[in-house]
Amino acid sequence: MRSKTTTTITVAAAALVLLTGCSTGQASGTASGTSTPSSTSQATAGPTGSITVFAAASLQQTFTTLGKDYEHAHPGTTVTFSFAGSSDLVTQIQNGAPADVFASADEPNMQKLTAADLIDGSAPAFATNTLQIAVAPGNPKRIDDLDDLTAPGLQVVTCAAPVPCGAATQKVEQAADVTLRPVSEEQSVTDVLGKVESGQADAGLVYVTDVRGAGGKVDGVTFDAARKVVNTYPIGVVHGAANADLARSFSAYVRSEDGQKVLADAGFGAP
Predict the structure, then answer these.
(1) DSSP assignment, residue 97?
(2) Which of 28, 165, 224, 244 shows the greatest Cβ crowding within 10 Å of its Cβ?
(3) Rounded to whole angstroms, how far apart are CA atoms 168 and 213?
(4) Residue 160 in this model has a pLDDT that exceeds 70
(5) How wide is the angle at C-alpha 112 spanned by C-alphas 255 and 180, nearest 5°?
Protein backbone atom coordinates (compact mmCIF):
# COMPACT_ATOMS: atom_id res chain seq x y z
CA MET A 1 0.00 0.00 0.00
CA ARG A 2 2.81 2.38 0.81
CA SER A 3 4.46 1.69 -2.56
CA LYS A 4 1.24 2.41 -4.45
CA THR A 5 0.67 5.62 -2.50
CA THR A 6 4.20 6.85 -3.19
CA THR A 7 3.80 6.17 -6.91
CA THR A 8 0.52 8.06 -7.03
CA ILE A 9 2.04 11.08 -5.33
CA THR A 10 5.03 11.05 -7.68
CA VAL A 11 2.81 10.99 -10.80
CA ALA A 12 0.64 13.78 -9.44
CA ALA A 13 3.68 15.93 -8.71
CA ALA A 14 5.04 15.38 -12.21
CA ALA A 15 1.70 16.36 -13.71
CA LEU A 16 1.66 19.53 -11.61
CA VAL A 17 5.15 20.48 -12.82
CA LEU A 18 4.09 19.90 -16.44
CA LEU A 19 1.00 22.07 -16.07
CA THR A 20 3.04 24.82 -14.42
CA GLY A 21 5.56 24.74 -17.28
CA CYS A 22 2.80 25.03 -19.91
CA SER A 23 1.24 27.92 -18.02
CA THR A 24 4.61 29.73 -17.86
CA GLY A 25 5.21 29.17 -21.58
CA GLN A 26 1.82 30.67 -22.46
CA ALA A 27 2.51 33.70 -20.31
CA SER A 28 5.90 34.22 -22.00
CA GLY A 29 4.30 33.94 -25.44
CA THR A 30 1.73 36.60 -24.58
CA ALA A 31 4.41 39.00 -23.35
CA SER A 32 6.48 38.60 -26.50
CA GLY A 33 3.39 39.06 -28.62
CA THR A 34 2.55 42.37 -26.97
CA SER A 35 6.01 43.75 -27.68
CA THR A 36 5.66 43.47 -31.48
CA PRO A 37 3.01 46.18 -31.99
CA SER A 38 5.08 48.52 -29.83
CA SER A 39 8.17 48.14 -32.02
CA THR A 40 6.07 48.49 -35.19
CA SER A 41 4.59 51.71 -33.84
CA GLN A 42 8.07 53.10 -33.26
CA ALA A 43 9.15 52.18 -36.82
CA THR A 44 6.27 54.09 -38.37
CA ALA A 45 6.39 57.05 -35.98
CA GLY A 46 6.63 60.45 -37.69
CA PRO A 47 4.50 63.10 -39.36
CA THR A 48 1.70 61.93 -41.62
CA GLY A 49 -0.81 63.61 -43.90
CA SER A 50 -0.21 65.64 -47.04
CA ILE A 51 1.81 68.67 -48.18
CA THR A 52 2.02 70.79 -51.31
CA VAL A 53 5.51 71.62 -52.55
CA PHE A 54 6.06 74.61 -54.87
CA ALA A 55 9.25 73.89 -56.81
CA ALA A 56 11.20 75.45 -59.68
CA ALA A 57 10.49 74.03 -63.13
CA SER A 58 14.04 72.69 -63.41
CA LEU A 59 13.32 70.39 -60.44
CA GLN A 60 10.30 68.67 -61.98
CA GLN A 61 11.78 65.28 -62.82
CA THR A 62 14.02 65.10 -59.76
CA PHE A 63 11.44 66.21 -57.20
CA THR A 64 8.82 63.89 -58.67
CA THR A 65 11.22 61.03 -57.94
CA LEU A 66 12.03 62.40 -54.48
CA GLY A 67 8.33 62.71 -53.69
CA LYS A 68 7.67 59.06 -54.53
CA ASP A 69 10.73 57.95 -52.58
CA TYR A 70 9.66 59.99 -49.56
CA GLU A 71 6.12 58.58 -49.60
CA HIS A 72 7.53 55.04 -49.79
CA ALA A 73 9.84 55.68 -46.83
CA HIS A 74 7.09 57.43 -44.83
CA PRO A 75 3.79 55.52 -45.07
CA GLY A 76 0.73 57.67 -44.57
CA THR A 77 2.15 60.71 -46.37
CA THR A 78 1.26 62.35 -49.68
CA VAL A 79 3.45 64.90 -51.47
CA THR A 80 1.84 67.02 -54.19
CA PHE A 81 3.85 69.35 -56.43
CA SER A 82 3.31 72.59 -58.31
CA PHE A 83 6.12 73.32 -60.78
CA ALA A 84 6.71 76.67 -62.49
CA GLY A 85 9.28 79.43 -62.81
CA SER A 86 10.53 80.43 -59.37
CA SER A 87 9.42 84.05 -59.79
CA ASP A 88 5.87 82.94 -60.67
CA LEU A 89 5.76 80.67 -57.62
CA VAL A 90 6.92 83.54 -55.39
CA THR A 91 4.07 85.69 -56.67
CA GLN A 92 1.58 82.91 -56.01
CA ILE A 93 2.81 82.43 -52.44
CA GLN A 94 2.73 86.18 -51.82
CA ASN A 95 -0.90 86.13 -52.97
CA GLY A 96 -1.80 83.40 -50.49
CA ALA A 97 -1.43 80.20 -52.52
CA PRO A 98 -1.57 77.13 -50.20
CA ALA A 99 2.06 76.02 -50.31
CA ASP A 100 3.83 74.15 -47.52
CA VAL A 101 7.34 74.05 -49.00
CA PHE A 102 9.10 76.28 -51.55
CA ALA A 103 12.19 75.15 -53.50
CA SER A 104 13.70 77.92 -55.61
CA ALA A 105 16.19 77.74 -58.48
CA ASP A 106 18.07 80.71 -57.04
CA GLU A 107 18.57 82.58 -53.79
CA PRO A 108 17.16 86.03 -54.79
CA ASN A 109 13.64 84.64 -55.28
CA MET A 110 13.79 82.88 -51.93
CA GLN A 111 14.99 86.12 -50.33
CA LYS A 112 11.82 87.86 -51.54
CA LEU A 113 9.81 85.51 -49.33
CA THR A 114 12.15 85.57 -46.34
CA ALA A 115 12.14 89.39 -46.42
CA ALA A 116 8.33 89.30 -46.29
CA ASP A 117 8.37 86.82 -43.36
CA LEU A 118 6.76 84.18 -45.54
CA ILE A 119 9.38 81.52 -44.77
CA ASP A 120 9.67 79.90 -41.34
CA GLY A 121 13.25 79.78 -40.12
CA SER A 122 16.14 79.38 -42.52
CA ALA A 123 16.10 78.28 -46.17
CA PRO A 124 19.20 76.09 -46.57
CA ALA A 125 20.76 75.32 -49.93
CA PHE A 126 20.33 71.79 -51.27
CA ALA A 127 21.79 71.87 -54.81
CA THR A 128 23.60 73.90 -57.46
CA ASN A 129 23.24 74.08 -61.24
CA THR A 130 24.87 75.72 -64.27
CA LEU A 131 23.72 76.68 -67.75
CA GLN A 132 24.26 74.78 -70.96
CA ILE A 133 23.25 75.44 -74.57
CA ALA A 134 20.52 73.05 -75.71
CA VAL A 135 20.63 72.25 -79.43
CA ALA A 136 18.98 69.74 -81.74
CA PRO A 137 20.47 66.22 -81.65
CA GLY A 138 23.71 66.14 -83.61
CA ASN A 139 24.11 69.92 -83.28
CA PRO A 140 23.25 70.66 -86.94
CA LYS A 141 23.94 74.41 -86.55
CA ARG A 142 27.49 73.67 -85.33
CA ILE A 143 27.20 75.75 -82.17
CA ASP A 144 30.37 75.54 -80.07
CA ASP A 145 30.26 78.55 -77.74
CA LEU A 146 28.01 81.31 -76.45
CA ASP A 147 29.05 83.84 -79.11
CA ASP A 148 27.85 81.42 -81.82
CA LEU A 149 24.31 82.23 -80.65
CA THR A 150 24.66 85.72 -82.17
CA ALA A 151 24.87 84.36 -85.75
CA PRO A 152 22.37 86.00 -88.14
CA GLY A 153 19.19 84.01 -88.66
CA LEU A 154 19.75 81.71 -85.69
CA GLN A 155 16.57 81.18 -83.67
CA VAL A 156 17.57 81.45 -80.00
CA VAL A 157 15.30 81.32 -76.95
CA THR A 158 16.13 82.16 -73.33
CA CYS A 159 14.33 82.60 -70.03
CA ALA A 160 12.91 86.00 -69.10
CA ALA A 161 15.06 88.05 -66.72
CA PRO A 162 12.93 87.57 -63.54
CA VAL A 163 13.26 83.78 -63.86
CA PRO A 164 16.45 82.29 -62.33
CA CYS A 165 17.64 80.86 -65.66
CA GLY A 166 17.05 84.30 -67.21
CA ALA A 167 19.07 86.05 -64.52
CA ALA A 168 21.84 83.49 -65.02
CA THR A 169 21.71 84.10 -68.77
CA GLN A 170 22.30 87.81 -68.25
CA LYS A 171 25.28 87.05 -66.01
CA VAL A 172 26.92 84.70 -68.52
CA GLU A 173 26.40 87.30 -71.26
CA GLN A 174 28.28 89.81 -69.13
CA ALA A 175 31.00 87.29 -68.27
CA ALA A 176 31.50 86.39 -71.94
CA ASP A 177 30.96 89.96 -73.22
CA VAL A 178 28.21 88.67 -75.53
CA THR A 179 24.80 90.21 -76.20
CA LEU A 180 22.07 87.78 -77.21
CA ARG A 181 18.94 88.74 -79.12
CA PRO A 182 16.50 85.93 -78.43
CA VAL A 183 13.39 85.53 -80.55
CA SER A 184 11.52 84.56 -77.38
CA GLU A 185 11.92 84.94 -73.61
CA GLU A 186 10.11 82.23 -71.66
CA GLN A 187 8.71 82.13 -68.13
CA SER A 188 10.35 78.80 -67.24
CA VAL A 189 13.35 76.78 -68.31
CA THR A 190 11.11 73.89 -69.34
CA ASP A 191 9.43 76.18 -71.89
CA VAL A 192 12.85 77.00 -73.37
CA LEU A 193 13.71 73.32 -73.54
CA GLY A 194 10.35 72.51 -75.14
CA LYS A 195 10.92 74.97 -78.00
CA VAL A 196 14.30 73.43 -78.81
CA GLU A 197 12.89 69.91 -78.59
CA SER A 198 10.02 70.76 -80.94
CA GLY A 199 12.25 72.52 -83.47
CA GLN A 200 10.72 75.95 -82.85
CA ALA A 201 14.17 77.17 -81.86
CA ASP A 202 17.69 76.30 -82.98
CA ALA A 203 19.17 76.74 -79.52
CA GLY A 204 18.25 77.72 -75.99
CA LEU A 205 19.96 78.37 -72.69
CA VAL A 206 18.86 75.82 -70.09
CA TYR A 207 20.44 74.02 -67.15
CA VAL A 208 22.78 71.06 -67.40
CA THR A 209 20.14 68.97 -65.63
CA ASP A 210 17.50 69.85 -68.25
CA VAL A 211 19.69 68.55 -71.06
CA ARG A 212 20.40 65.35 -69.15
CA GLY A 213 16.73 64.88 -68.32
CA ALA A 214 15.65 65.36 -71.96
CA GLY A 215 16.58 61.78 -72.74
CA GLY A 216 18.41 62.46 -76.02
CA LYS A 217 15.82 64.85 -77.44
CA VAL A 218 18.47 67.59 -77.34
CA ASP A 219 22.24 67.77 -77.11
CA GLY A 220 24.10 70.03 -74.70
CA VAL A 221 26.95 72.41 -75.52
CA THR A 222 29.15 73.42 -72.59
CA PHE A 223 30.72 76.89 -72.68
CA ASP A 224 33.38 78.54 -70.52
CA ALA A 225 31.34 81.45 -69.13
CA ALA A 226 28.84 79.03 -67.55
CA ARG A 227 31.43 77.99 -64.97
CA LYS A 228 31.46 81.55 -63.62
CA VAL A 229 27.71 81.59 -62.95
CA VAL A 230 26.41 78.97 -60.53
CA ASN A 231 22.79 78.91 -59.37
CA THR A 232 22.25 77.85 -55.76
CA TYR A 233 18.92 76.19 -54.92
CA PRO A 234 17.44 76.82 -51.43
CA ILE A 235 14.43 75.13 -49.82
CA GLY A 236 12.21 76.46 -47.03
CA VAL A 237 8.98 75.85 -45.13
CA VAL A 238 6.30 78.39 -45.99
CA HIS A 239 4.96 80.41 -43.05
CA GLY A 240 1.53 79.15 -42.04
CA ALA A 241 2.03 75.75 -43.69
CA ALA A 242 -0.98 73.50 -43.04
CA ASN A 243 1.34 70.62 -42.09
CA ALA A 244 4.56 72.24 -40.91
CA ASP A 245 5.99 69.07 -39.32
CA LEU A 246 5.66 67.12 -42.56
CA ALA A 247 6.99 70.09 -44.53
CA ARG A 248 10.12 70.20 -42.36
CA SER A 249 10.52 66.45 -42.68
CA PHE A 250 10.37 66.55 -46.49
CA SER A 251 12.79 69.48 -46.61
CA ALA A 252 15.23 67.49 -44.47
CA TYR A 253 14.80 64.46 -46.73
CA VAL A 254 15.78 66.50 -49.80
CA ARG A 255 19.00 67.45 -47.99
CA SER A 256 19.63 63.93 -46.66
CA GLU A 257 22.11 61.47 -48.12
CA ASP A 258 19.33 59.69 -50.04
CA GLY A 259 17.96 62.94 -51.42
CA GLN A 260 21.38 64.20 -52.42
CA LYS A 261 22.07 60.99 -54.35
CA VAL A 262 18.93 61.46 -56.45
CA LEU A 263 19.93 65.07 -57.17
CA ALA A 264 23.51 64.11 -58.05
CA ASP A 265 22.30 61.39 -60.41
CA ALA A 266 20.24 64.04 -62.21
CA GLY A 267 23.31 66.24 -62.69
CA PHE A 268 22.88 68.73 -59.86
CA GLY A 269 25.97 69.88 -58.00
CA ALA A 270 26.40 69.80 -54.24
CA PRO A 271 25.22 72.91 -52.35
Answers:
(1) -
(2) 165
(3) 20
(4) yes
(5) 90
Q: Of all helices (H) and strands (E), which one includes residue 177?
A: none
Strands (E), the chain: 49-56, 77-84, 101-103, 119-120, 125-129, 131-135, 156-159, 184-186, 203-207, 219-221, 231-238
Q: How many CA atoms lie within 13 A of 107 on its CB side?
A: 12
Give phi and psi for 94, each to the nearest 5. -60, -30
Residue-wise over 89-120: b if at least 16 C-beta within 10 A, else e?
bbebbeeeeebbbbbbbbeebbebbbeeebbb
For residue 190, how far is the Cα from the chain centroid? 16
pLDDT confidence of residue 5: 39
Chain centroid to Cα 179, Å, comes to: 34
Residue 46: the pLDDT is 80
Query: Pick from 163, 153, 208, 213: which is nearest to 185 by CA?
Result: 163
CB 109 within 8 A of CB 248: no
What is the overall mean pLDDT for the chain?
A: 87
CA-wise closest residue to 176 among 168, 188, 184: 168
Residues 6+ apart with CB under 8 A from 153: none
Q: Is the pLDDT of residue 21 over 80?
A: no
Q: How many helices (H) and strands (E) does the chain have?
A: 9, 11
Write a three-state SS string for 128-145.
EECEEEEECCCCCCCCCC
Distance CA 234, CA 205 (A): 21
DSSP three-state, residue 268: coil
pTM for the structure as a whole? 0.81
Q: Which tens digits make up the pLDDT trace of 28-71? A: 333 333 333 333 333 346 899 999 999 999 999 999 999 999 99
